[in-house]
Amino acid sequence: KIQYFVIMLFGLCLLCGCEDALTVKPENSLTYENGLSTPKDFESFINGVDKALKVLTYTNEPNLQIKKGVYVDDYYDDSEMEWSQTLSFPSSELSYWNTRSWQIYYQPIANANVVLAYADVADLSSEERNLYKGQAWFYKALLYLEIIRQWGDCMLIRDQVELLPTAKTNWDEVADYAIDLATKAAEVLPEFDKIRMANGNVATYKSTPCKGSANALLAHLCAWKAGGKYFAHDDAYDEMELWKKAEEACTRVITSGQYGLAANPEEVCASVLLGDSRESIYETITRNFWNEERLPMGPKHIVEDYAGWPIIPTIQPSSVAYNVCRIKASSMKEMYLQNDLRREAYFYKLDSMSHDTLLPVTGGYAYLYKFRKFYTERTDDGYIMVRGLDQNKIWWRLADIYLLRAECYAKLGDDLAKADLNKIRNRAHATPYPAPGENDIQLAIFKERERELLLEGHRYYDIIRNGLEYIHTYMDGNYKTLDQQDVKEGALFLPIGDEAFNLNDLIRQNIYWSRFE
């Protein structure tokens, strides 16, 4: 067992990729106390968990679930989008999906447990102990949120630092555990501007877990369990209490004084989505990361299937009709009305480039302009290759939290939902609620999240959180025929990958997906 610890510790030191990697004291009985004794040691170990989140951005696992609800009008039939958007997974293709593994989520959970196991026995000040424990709690809660949103029922690793075979736990019980972790993190972590690193410097990057990011995480966890009551295994809980808890967490973020909305949608595109803005609450640093790691491709992001001219100058305007994913200009004109500033910020010259005279070039499709910076590399023969999106992964920004609080208020029957909804509409110069024809505040908030957070990875989870009626309305193919039993048996989640079964003989496939094996 000691050998296992040593190997894991050494592997994490390599993962940290920095000069402050852990130094293990040469003692006969090697334990983590030897390597985790100073603030710099704990900070390096925490950085290793953050590095694991970076690695996740280079895999396709998160995109598999996000693609299910991403807004798209047309896509190639032979692409992943066909399977994702219609829930039509041919048995011949199930093996492809079953190569997806949750193992990369569990190793950093075990590593966070190392911090929690030794923070109380190390020679740390109370402030340092709270910081490192709070950050470890945050990472565990975030990883569990990702796991239960992608796979539903999963292994629940509480305090173990060795990943032993473990049976699945119901997702709603895992959610309770993650909510408790996020609550404790929000209680002990300082606000971002109060965090001091081991060298005494202030925190530089929004990838540093703090009170604001912990409250944003708590809000999303509570909202997920509240909205998921219709497919919970044990639905004997008060979802209104969870909506209230989510609202309170959102309010703490909004009133903290740490964050502020960008002035307009153009600033969202040109600054906020790149990273390190006042609107950003929590993000993973990925800009220039592929250069540092020399990975063959940049971060995987759903927008790469939409991107082209004019963001990538080596691509011709006519290529928009051949993108993997395509959005019709007419659809976006309906989504973003004439006075909505997002109409031109999110799409390049939406009106002029969709003129009938340009149909032979555009095919009637819009040019995505919301995400504007990509990695490029010039080859020896002068060809410019596009490597990936050169922007940080923004987990949550303030506009998301305003709209999530609006959703909480709507579920609680509180008229304050309109004020939060209109806070985001006013920034975009969109018509305040209720616009002509609007009489359903819950639907209006969902549609506003769809507009504001377009292609930011929220839409599928928003649909699920709003119930089976929304799934039948806003999803296609086999989604429209799902019933209550299907969703309880795991239809909304990914099948568990083969690797999990190879490593753990206590794991069983979700009931829904076992039908296709």
Q: How would you describe this protein?
A:
The chain is mostly helical and 517 residues long. Helix 3 (39-56) runs antiparallel to helix 7. A two-stranded antiparallel sheet has the order 1-5. A two-stranded antiparallel ribbon has the order 2-3. The protein is globular, with a radius of gyration of 23 Å. The model is unreliable at 1-31 and 294-298 (pLDDT under 50). The protein has 24 helices and 8 strands. Helix content is 48%, strand content 6%. It has helices at 2-16, 32-35, 39-56, 61-69, 80-86, 91-97, 103-119, 126-151, 171-188, 211-227, 239-254, 265-272, 289-293, 329-335, 342-345, 359-362, 398-412, 417-427, 441-452, 459-465, 468-474, 484-488, 498-503, 511-514, and strands spanning 74-75, 154-155, 168-169, 280-284, 325-326, 374-378, 384-389, 393-397.
Notable characteristics:
517 residues, mainly alpha, two-stranded antiparallel ribbon, 48% helix, globular, disordered N terminus
